[in-house]
Amino acid sequence: MKILVVEDFRAIAKGFSEVLRAQGHDVQCVIGFSDIDKLEAIDIDDQPVTLTAEAYDFALVDGQLEQFNGQPDNPIEGPAVVSRLVKSGVVCFGISTEQKLNAEMVKNGAKNADTKPVSFFAFVHGVVTVEQVVAGDSLAIQRLQDTHTNINSEAYADRRHQCDDIIKRNF
């Protein structure tokens, strides 16, 4: 699948990209948008790019993004990105530490949303796959919710460290 990662923290964007590429996906990362209607974005190397939404099957979208639109008081954030991508047929999944932004992304059409640590853990360890999210697999979403509940337990400690190692590699 062709995947777009929209995440302004580069280590996390690179970590998601590494994991999803290892699973056989074609991944592009952007750190924000200067014009959401025209899909003008800034890539992970700070270069301007214009995206074609129809080229993507799936997008992971952070809730809070850096400001690249010249409006410091009104940056283009995840909920607007989700709304724009969903209108073009892209399946979106929100990844934000802000629950209100996750809820807004779901309201705007994301299949689901969760915190970055839980989402990263879930994709790294196969709790859910991109294909399951795209298909709307309710059992996969339940496994994601179970992970959210149990991620800080001792039973998950070794697997959390594996996730930390991936992010550290990408700093």
Q: Which helices and strands appear, and what pairs or packs with what?
A:
Elements (H helix, E strand, L loop, with lengths): L1 E5 L3 H13 L3 E10 L4 E4 L4 E3 L7 E5 L15 H10 L3 E5 L3 H9 L4 E3 L1 H9 L5 H6 L2 H13 L6 H13 L2
Parallel strand pairs: 1-2, 1-5, 5-6, 6-7
Antiparallel strand pairs: 2-3, 3-4
Helix pairs in contact: 1-4, 1-7, 2-3
Structure, briefly:
With 171 residues, the protein is α/β, with parallel strands linked by helices. The protein has a single domain, classed as Response regulator (Rossmann fold, 3-Layer(aba) Sandwich). It has helices spanning 10-22, 78-87, 99-107, 116-124, 130-135, 138-150, 157-169, and strands at residues 2-6, 26-35, 40-43, 48-50, 58-62, 91-95, 112-114.
What would you say this structure looks like, in words?
- The chain has 171 residues and is an alpha/beta fold.
- The chain has a single domain, classed as Response regulator (Rossmann fold).
- The protein has seven helices and seven strands; from the N terminus they run E-H-E-E-E-E-H-E-H-E-H-H-H-H.
- It has helices at residues 10-22, 78-87, 99-107, 116-124, 130-135, 138-150, 157-169; strands at residues 2-6, 26-35, 40-43, 48-50, 58-62, 91-95, 112-114.
- Strands 4-3-2-1-5-6-7 form a seven-stranded mixed β-sheet, sandwiched between helices.
- Strand 5, helix 2 and strand 6 form a beta-alpha-beta unit.
- Helix 1 runs parallel beside helix 4, helix 1 packs across helix 7 and helix 2 (78-87) packs parallel to helix 3.
- The longest helix has 13 residues, at 10-22.
